[in-house]
Design brief:
Length: about 550
C-alpha cells in the first residue's frame, strides 16, 4: 500500500492540488503532512538533505524506510494508472558520504540485518565498537545538555545509532557494513566515517569544550539539571566549590548533593551494593517475612559500578506490601543509617495502565511508592576481609547476541546475581556509633548539623544514593523490567509495544488497547512472551 506525501517546496500551489487530485483518482492515498504511515515522498528537491531540512527532521534516519522520489516517478505512475516500480532514474541524490561508499563497495554486501528495536536484540556491556559508540554518546550528551528545541530528538537519534553499533557482532571496519542497518542517519554516518578514516572525529573533539565539561560536572550533582547548570555557568562559576559556597537551595537533594558531591560521585561498587541490599533485606524481612527483594538498575544488568543502588520490593501475598516502606525507613533511621530522602506515596490507579501517556521521559515515570535518598555505609565495607563473598556471585554462563549469532566472553559481559548473598555483615551499629559520638561532642544534636558540616566531619562512612521501590505483586514483573532498564531499553520496548502490538507497556503492566484488557505476568519471561519477544537477559539490556 502506497501512502504518498508530495512536498510542496518548489511546486506551485495549483500544480500541487492537481497532482494530489490525480493521485487520489488512481486510488492512491495522499496525505498533507508527514506522518508515520507515509511510504513514498515525491519532491522537486534534488537531494535527501534538503528533504530532511524541509521536514525538520533531526537526520535522515526517519526516512530510511521511505521511498524519497523525484516528480519523474510521480509522472510515470500517473501515466501507468498506478504506482510504478522504482527505477534508478526516479531516485533523488543521497548525501556525498553515502554515495561514495555505496559506489566503491558494491561487492561487500552485508548480509546482517539487525532487528529494528533494541528489545529484539541483545546489547551487552562489552561489545566491538566502543570507539564509535563513545563518540556518538558524546554527541547525545551534548544535545541533552544543550536542551534546545529538537535537541531531545537529536539526542535520541544519536543514542539509537550507538545502540545499533553496540549490538553489532563484529567491529565495524567499513561503511558498507552499515548498509542494511536502520537507525543510523547521515550525521552519525559522517562521524563513523571520520573515525574509520582518522581514528577520531573533529566535531566530537570540539564539542567537549569548556562549557561541556562544566555542564557535565554540574549536572552530575544530585538534583541539578541542565537549566540550573547553565545559569551557574552564566554566573561565571566553573567549580563545585563555587557552587557549594554560592548556591542556596530549598531543594533537599541539591543541598545534600552539593555537600556530599565527592562521596556521591565516587562510583558505588558491587560490594557496596550487596552490602546495602543485605542491610535492607535484614530489616525488611524482620518487618515482613517472605518479602521479595531484588537489586535492579545497572547492577542487575551486570555493571560493576553505578551512581546508586536500586532495590525493588514486593510480597507474594497481595496487599502485604502496604505500609512496608515507612516501617523499613523507620528502622533504618533508628540504626542511624539514613542521611536524607523523600518518601513518595503511590499515585497508581488502574487508569494508568491505559492512559495514553506520551513516550516522553515524563510519560514514562511510574507511580509506585518509593523512597529516593542518601544513606551512609562504612568506608571499609567494600574492602573488609571479614566479609565472605565466596559463592555469592553467579557468573552467568553465556551471553549470546540474540539474532546476530555472536557470543561475547562471559567473564567480562555478565555478572548479575539473582541469589540471596551469603556473607557476614559488618556490625553497622558499632561502626557508625563512633561518628555519632564525635558528632555529639562537636556539635550537639544531629538537627543542628548542616549537610556541609556533616560532610566535613572526620568520618568513617561514605554517603550513597539509594532508590527503594515497592510494587504490588501483580505488577512486580513489569516493575522489574522497568527498573532494570536501561532507559534506552525501556524506551524501545515501550515504543515496540505501542507501534507493533497496539499495547501499552509501563512498569505497572501491559495493556492490550485492541482487546481492552491487561495481560498479567508471573515472571519476567512472561512479560516478554506477552509481547511476542524472545527473552532478553538483564545483562543484554545495556543499550
Ligand atoms: N527508572 C524508572 N523510574 C524512575 C527512575 C528510574 O523506571 N523514576 C528506571 C530507569 O529507566 C533505569 C532504572 O530504573 O533503567 C534504574 O535507574 P537509574 O538508577 O537512574 O539508572 P541505572 O541504569 O541503574 O544506572 P546507574 O548504574 O548509574 O545507577
Ligand atoms: Mn541505578
Ligand atoms: Mn536509581
Amino acid at each position: 500500500m502506497v501512502c504518498l506525501l508530495i512536498l510542496p517546496s518548489k511546486i506551485q500551489k495549483r500544480r500541487l492540488e492537481d497532482m494530489k487530485t490525480a493521485a487520489r483518482k488512481r486510488n492512491i492515498t495522499v496525505v498533507d503532512s508527514f506522518c508515520s504511515s507515509v511510504t513514498h515522498i515525491v519532491t522537486e528537491h534534488e537531494n535527501l538533505d534538503q528533504v530532511v531540512k524541509t521536514l525538520k527532521l533531526a537526520d535522515s534516519g526517519t526516512l530510511d524506510k521511505i521511498q524519497v522520489l523525484s516528480v519523474a516517478w510521480f509522472t510515470d505512475s500517473m501515466k501507468a494508472g498506478a504506482p510504478v516500480p522504482v527505477e534508478e532514474k526516479h531516485m533523488i541524490k543521497r548525501e556525498k558520504a553515502d554515495r561514495d561508499n555505496g559506489g566503491n563497495e558494491n561487492s561487500g554486501r552485508n548480509p546482517l540485518i539487525l532487528p529494528e528495536y533494541a528489545c529484539q536484540r541483545a546489547t551487552c556491556l562489552k561489545h566491538f565498537n566502543h570507539k564509535f559508540t563513545k563518540a556518538l554518546e558524546i554527541l547525545q550528551k551534548h544535545a541533552e545538555l544543550r536542551d534546545n528545541e529538537r535537541d531531545s530528538s537529536r539526542a535520541l537519534a544519536f543514542r539509537r545509532a550507538s545502540c545499533v553499533l553496540k549490538s553489532l557482532p563484529f567491529p565495524l571496519t567499513s561503511m558498507s557494513q552499515l548498509k542494511n542497518l536502520t537507525n543510523i542517519g547521515d550525521h552519525c554516518k559522517r562521524v563513523i566515517q571520520e573515525i574509520l578514516e582518522d581514528g577520531e572525529c573533529r566535531e566530537v573533539n570540539e564539542l567537549q569544550d569548556d562549557w561541556f565539561q562544566k555542564m557535565v560536572v554540574f549536572t552530575n550533582i544530585f538534583g541539578i539539571g541542565s537549566a540550573t547548570a547553565k545559569k551557574w555557568i552564566e554566573k561565571g562559576w566553573s567549580t563545585i566549590k563555587e557552587a557549594q559556597e554560592g548556591y542556596i537551595s530549598s531543594d533537599w537533594r541539591v543541598r545534600w548533593g552539593l555537600a556530599f558531591h565527592t562521596d556521591l560521585n565516587t562510583p558505588v561498587n558491587l560490594q557496596e551494593a550487596q552490602y546495602i541490599q543485605q542491610i535492607v533485606r535484614k530489616e525488611a524481612e524482620t518487618i515482613l517475612p517472605g518479602i521479595i527483594l531484588q537489586i535492579t538498575g545497572g547492577f542487575r544488568r551486570g555493571k560493576e559500578e553505578g551512581h546508586d543502588v536500586d532495590i525493588l520490593m514486593t510480597h507474594p501475598e497481595e496487599g502485604k506490601e502496604v505500609g512496608l516502606l515507612a516501617r523499613l525507613l523507620q528502622r533504618l533511621q533508628n540504626k542511624g543509617i539514613i542521611l536524607c530522602g523523600n518518601l513518595e506515596k503511590s499515585t497508581y490507579s488502574d487508569e494508568m495502565l491505559t492512559l495514553d501517556s506520551k513516550l516522553s521521559a515524563k510519560g514514562q515515570l511510574d507511580h509506585f511508592e518509593k523512597w529516593l535518598g542518601i544513606i551512609k555505609i562504612p568506608h571499609s565495607c567494600s574492602e573488609n576481609p571479614a566479609m565472605d563473598y565466596s559463592g555469592s556471585l553467579s557468573i552467568i554462563s553465556s551471553c549470546v547476541h540474540k539474532g546476530t549469532g555472536c557470543s561475547v566472553d562471559n567473564s567480562t559481559c555478565c555478572t548479575a546475581s539473582e541469589q540471596p548473598l551469603n556473607y557476614q555483615p559488618l556490625n553497622l551499629d558499632e561502626s557508625l556509633d563512633l561518628e555519632s559520638k564525635a558528632k555529639k561532642q562537636k556539635l550537639g544534636t544531629e538537627n543542628e548539623i548542616s549537610p556541609m558540616e556533616l560532610a566535613k566531619l572526620d568520618r568513617n562512612w561514605i554517603a550513597r544514593r539509594v532508590d527503594l521501590i515497592v510494587s504490588p505483586y501483580d505488577q512486580y514483573f513489569y516493575a522489574l523490567v522497568g527498573w532494570t532498564g536501561n532507559k534506552q531499553f525501556n524506551r524501545d520496548i515501550r515504543t515496540y509495544a505501542q507501534r507493533e502490538l497496539g499495547m501499552k507497556l509501563s512498569s505497572h503492566g501491559l495493556y492490550d488497547l485492541n482487546k481492552n484488557c491487561a495481560l498479567p505476568a508471573r515472571s519476567e519471561k512472561e512479560v516478554f512472551q506477552n509481547m511476542k519477544l524472545q527473552y532478553i537477559e538483564p545483562w543484554e539490556r545495556n543499550c
